[in-house]
Amino acid sequence: MLSKIFEKKTNTGKILIVDDEPGMVMVVSKFLKHNGYEVITAQDGVECISKSESELPDLILLDNVMPNMDGQTALVKLRASNKTKDIPVIMVTALSDEKNIASAQKGGAVEYVVKPFDYTVLLEKIAKVLKSKRNVS
Amino acid sequence: METMTTEQTQVLADKKLIKVLLVEDDENDSRLAKRILANCSRPVKFVIESVGTISEAVEYVGSREYDVVLLDLGLPDSGGIETVQKVSEANPHVSIVALTGLDDEQAGLLAIQNGATDYLTKSMQLDNLLVRTVLYALERKQAEEKVKRAAHEWRTTFDSISDMISIHDKEHKIVRVNMTLARFFKKEPKELIGKRCCELFHNTEQPRQNCPHSQTLKTRKPGSLEFYEPYLGIHVAVSTSPVFDDEGEVTGSVHLIKNITERKLAEEKLIKANEKLEEYNKLKDEFVSTASHELRTPLSIIMGAIKLVLDEIPGKIVPEQREILSEAMENAQRLSNTVSSLLNISRIESGKMDWKAEPVDICKLISDTVSNCKTLAREKDISLDYEADQRSIDILVDPDKTKQVLINLISNSLKFTPKGGWVKVSCTEQDGEILVSVEDCGVGIAQEDMPKLFDKFTQFGRKAGPGEKGTGLGLAISKKIVELAKGRIWAESEPGKGSKFTFTIPKT
Lengths: 137, 508
Hints:
The complex is a heterodimer of chains A (137) and B (508). Chain A is of the alpha/beta class. Chain A has helices at 2-11, 22-34, 45-55, 71-80, 98-107, 119-136; strands spanning 14-18, 38-42, 59-63, 89-93, 111-114. In chain B, a hairpin with a 4-residue loop joins strand 10 (223-229) and strand 11 (234-244). At the A-B interface, helix 2 of A face helix 11 and helix 12 of B.
């Protein structure tokens, strides 16, 4: 019982899911919520920026291909703004080639996952990133 | 007919040998001439043959070698110019000295106009005059022949140059053209002489602004220009060189005109082909991007949705529901693997895959990979083991791609090995290479299937019913990866007994 409470405590955090696919958003939200995270969502790069600035999530799950503004561009803008530059970003991409991954990392993404990903692995990565963020602060 | 040249005769003796044919019907005159020539004081020796008629003369000149022909114009069977012409025809290269009657200057001059090199009237035939005339005539003839040969050589060279050449004077008028140019304009060279270059090449009255001939005339320096001439319908590269007279004044220029139409066309073709290639490359990249996204996104959602239910997050499920959903999950995974394989092979073939080497303990990499595959092996009741003759070997490899190859080989072995069988992975170091082998006791590969083993989309032993199917790309991808690492991959097999796949990675 106690361990469950502690587990929940360390898993707490606000995660912003940025994806224009409603199916993706639904599935990932359910996983995250089940694991104790608070979830907010955005449909494209523009909404991503505005919600990041207003809600200040602990982590952003950023898809790449979206209308209006894609993930790479949003990432650059996030890093450029003082308000949002310290929010860790995990990039979600369908392209597994090195060039895309390298540019995501250069853009400032702290991690990346390639679709279709193992959801367990995703949860592990999220936990790792949040833990190291907490340790830093 | 080659006459003995001055140089050749000088080499022979201190006396120069000169072969003379004396054509004279008068006995006295003949004897006199012979005596004069025999007694000459110069360092020459005249070798004289004599005949009395023109027909004999023609026969001798045509069949034997002489340096000089002393020709009496008044012969019994011929006279005057005819005599000279006949001998000249028989051999155009021999020097003819005409002997005319007393004081017949006119006949002598006429003889020269018709092919004789010199003449002597009978009153002039004193000792030294005869000898001197003969020698002088010989020299003159030889000099003429030299000039003729040189001119012929020059002319041949000029005409044989495959580019067009024209020589123009200060008024831009053509002074000379070579055969290549004449042929291009389908005219005889003499028809083109006097035409101005702007007339001939551009069909205009005045030379153009950038006419290289005008430039060269002005600057006294070579000029050049490349352009398309619509009047002739060709691309040309023109270079002009100034021609100077003795006072250093420019009197005209030599034009070298290269027809570069073909070259230009080939260049244009190449540029267009390159542009097309760039376009196709871009299209291909866009296609791969789109395909990646459109295939992988729905797959992601499907697999996530199924996993949610299997993990019982919305609520508990019964075993039959689990069975059904597991089947769905497996196939979603299979679809995902196929997409990955296709995208992989597409990337490799575009040359977009890199081998990113880092320091890795290859033994550990292999043992970790093998451990990850043990679950799958256990499901099929196959024992999967790793044997190494060393605890650790550090080399530079791309870990992800090496794993990919290993997993491909292991999963192939598991696919084709029956229940209760075994698969053995081993690793050794040999001759500066790392050898990794995956051996099984499965169905093996037929000899006739061996050559096509690593080809794309080829599969052997594909069975109906339960069991994994595949895209037939696994080994092709593995081969490309190993080749990228500058290694080799091959298979040994015996049908019914088993197979052993080995790949090498160079240590350096």
